[in-house]
Structure formats: C-alpha cells, structure tokens
Amino acid sequence: MYLVYANEKGHVYDHPGLLAVARNGDILTEILEEELIPLPEGATLVSLPDTVPIGMDPDTGEMVKLDGCTAVGALVPQGITRLLLPGYVKSKKESKLPLFGYSAVVWKDGSFWVAGRASDDIYKWDPLNFPMDELRQRVEKTLELFPQNRILQHLSHCALEYECLTASNNFFHRWEGSLPVSYTCNAGCYGCISEQPEDSGFPSPQTRMNFKPTEDELVEVMLHHLQTPESIISFGQGCEGEPSTMASIIVPAMRRVREQTDMGFININTNAGLTDHIKGIVDAGLDLMRVSIISAIDEHYNAYYRPRNYTLENVARSAEYASSKGVYTSINYLCFPGVFDREEEMEAMINFIRRTGIKLIQLRNLNIDPESYLSMIPKAQGEVFGMKQAIEIYQEELPDVIIGSFTHVPPEELRRRKSME
Asked: So which residues are the signal peptide here (predicted)?
C-alpha cells in the first residue's frame, strides 16, 4: 500500500517508492490490511494545507518526508468510522486545518483505500437518495404550504446550500427530519460547527439560526413530518445551539402534538447538561434522546465542551432519568484515533454507559484540527489499543448495546406501532 500525496496544484498521486503510514493521535504507525476498506462511494479526497506527507522506505523502514507536496486525506460519508489519521507533519505549526474529519488514504491494488470501518447502513444517508432537482421542487412546494414558518425557511437554506440530509428529509417527508429551535448554548465546544470566536482560527462551516421560533411554528413542523411510523423529528442540529435551553416552548409544543397524533418518534440531540429541562422534555413525551459526548473523564470533557453552569455529572443524571422513563437513549460519541482507544477513556466510557442505561453508541468522526485538539486534552495514561481493537472491546464488554452511527428507531417499538395501523 503506497503513499498518496498532492502537488502544489492539488493533483493527487501515488508514490511508487514509499509505503503509506498513518497517525494514531500523534504517533506515526504502519497501516494494517484489516484496517482498510475501499474508498467508499461519496467520499472526497482533500489535500491538507500546510502539511508535509510522510511515507516509509520499504527497504530500511525509515520515515521519509516528501517535501514540496501536501498530505492527502479522505472525508468519508456518515456511517463510516475512520480508524487512522493521515500521516503528515505541519509545515507551519500555527496553521489550523478546517473543521473536517480526515482519514488516512492509501493506494492499493490499483485503487484508493481508506482506514475505516462501516459502522452502520448508510442507505438513508446516501446522497444519491437526495436528488437536488427533486429537492428544490419539494422545498418550493413546502414553503408554499407554510409561507410564514421561519423554521422551514431556515431548513430550506440548510438543505439547498449545505446539502444537509437531515434538513432535506423535512422536504422529502421521510426518515429523520430536523427541528432546530435554539440560537443559544450552554457550552462553548472547541469544535462547534455553527459558532466560533473570531480569533479561533476555525471558520464555522455552517451559520447558526438567529431567531427564537414560536410554539406554533414547532407544532406545524412536527405535525407536517410525523405522518409515518418510522418518521423521526429531531431537536438539536448542527445549525443551532443547545435545544434544551428552549424547553419552555418545546414542552408545550410536544404536548400539543401528542394530543393530535402518536405517529412517529420525537428525538432530541442534546448535551444533556440542563437536567431539569431534560426531565421536563422527557415527561412531555420524548421517545428518543441522543447525548453528545467526547469523553467520560471530567478533565477531557470540560476541555472540549467548555460547559457553562453544568458538569459531566449532570449529563449522566439526565441520561439516567431518560432511560428510567423508557426513553431510548444513545450517545453521539465523537471519536478521534489515538484518544477514543486509550485504556482510561474506554474504562470511563464503559462505566458511564452501564450506569446510564445507554442502548446505542453512535460513532461519529470528530471534525477538528488534530494538533489543536491533542494539545488541549490530557495525555494518554495507559495503553492505546487502536480504533479497531477498541471497538471490538466495546462489543465484548457491552454485548446488549448497539454500535452504529445513526439514530435508530427501537425495533420492538416500531413493530408495535406498525401492528396498530
């Protein structure tokens, strides 16, 4: 398997004499055959600005910098968990990579391969199922039906400009649809994709919603989407802050909707720090809850999320309460090779999952500049297993917990609802 690199014009090549290497955190490592999958459909190759690729001399085992070129990474589609980072060093230490999740890519057997793992069925998240011409027509018709609804106007921008698939589902009238509700947040996440300080060095790839919706607007969007047993409407999107800060309108809106229909599922994607607010939302009829988390170690969690007036203990209590009330709970686990697979991280997270009754781990690639992230979190204290082995350990330690990438409808509840049709 050979090194892939880009020239100054961005043209991608494979190196005929250097083997590919990758990074697990900040450690250069060889790539194992079992860590590779063919470049998935929908993946994108990108050059990494201000980097120098590193390969390995097959005769001496020496690591070699390829000066005058840039490293190449793959941006893999949702549902694919990256196992290794590209092998590179920064040519400008102060330079920061844009907020994407870069996976190691190699040239092997006449084609590109990436260090990755298929963690879920990507059918519902395949861009081919979201044809743009049809989407434009559906957006136009939906906005004609609800000309005063600012949420749908906002989502039309997300769907057409950012090509957000969850937002697009609102207009295709299927699967998991978005319901952004909050322009404020009780955390200052280091890698937030919708709001960054001007001096952060990270341009935000999305624009956060800038208005407070009304209860009527929420009800309108929910009733429009919740019309099939499999439909999901989700508070908490990349284009907003923390949805539970708006519990004062979410709770009465949910109650009004459930007075009119029991169709579909109501979900919240949340940091779960506002335990009292989460309890109110759960009691109003919540079906699914996905808790965003990066670590179950306080020092690490606080360094990334920078929580405002809440702690990791609040997060655990919120998840415990939701599980105790029959809510199907999951974690949105932000994964980074060389950190996710640390011994102490795994031990803490497994204990967190057991305590809180989490049913599903959604593995999500952390979109971040690697050097910036690694410099702000604690150093590894124990063994680093590698992503592939770490996931296998989770499967062994938590046999009743599903490991995937997406929000799942509980199969037993879906069967029950379908039987009532």
From this structure: none
What is the rounded average pLDDT of the residues 394-402?
97
pLDDT tens profile 51-74:
999 999 999 999 999 999 999 999
By three-state DSSP, how is residue 243 classified?
helix
pLDDT computed for residue 408 by the predictor = 86
Measure the CA–CA gap between 351 and 199, rounded to whole angstroms.
37
CA 392 remoteness from chain centre = 20
- DSSP labels for 349-400? HHHHHHHHT--EEEEEE--S-HHHHHHHSPPP-S-B--HHHHHHHHHHH-TT
Residue reference for tokens 């974690």 = 331
| 284 vs 46: CA distance, rounded Å | 45
Q: Taken in order 235, 294, 329, 406, is the CA torsion positive or negative?
A: positive
Taking the model in full, what pTM does it have?
Answer: 0.92
Q: Where are the domains of the chain?
A: 2-118, 123-414
Q: Contact 52/65 with Cβ under 8 angstroms?
A: yes
Tell me, what amino acid is at 303? A
The Cα–Cα gap between 269 and 364 comes to 13
In order of 31, 288, 350, 418, the CA distances from 236 in angstroms are 36, 12, 25, 27
Query: 67: which DSSP letter?
Result: T
Residue 399 has pLDDT above 70, yes or no: yes
Q: Which of 70, 106, 74, 64 is nearest to 91 (CA)?
A: 70
Q: Nearest Cα to 361, choosing from 384, 386, 318, 390?
A: 390
Over the chain, what is the mean pLDDT?
93
3-state secondary structure of 21: strand
pLDDT class for 189, splitting at 50, 70, 90? confident
What is the number of other CB atoms lying within 10 angstroms of the CB of residue 392?
13
Q: How confident is the model at residue 406 (pLDDT cuts 50, 70, 90)?
A: very high
* Cα Rg, the chain, nearest whole Å: 22
Q: Report which residue type is found at 338.
A: G
pLDDT of the residue at 200: 53
Give the count of beta carbons closer than 10 Å to the beta carbon of residue 271.
Answer: 26
Which DSSP symbol is given to 147? T
Fold of 123-414: TIM Barrel (3.20.20)
Give dist(CA 115, CA 85) in Å, integer.
8
| Percentage above 70 pLDDT, the chain | 94
Residue 419's pLDDT is 56
Cα angle: 93, vertex 96, 100; to 5 degrees: 140
Angle, CA of 74, 98 and 11, to the nearest 5°: 45
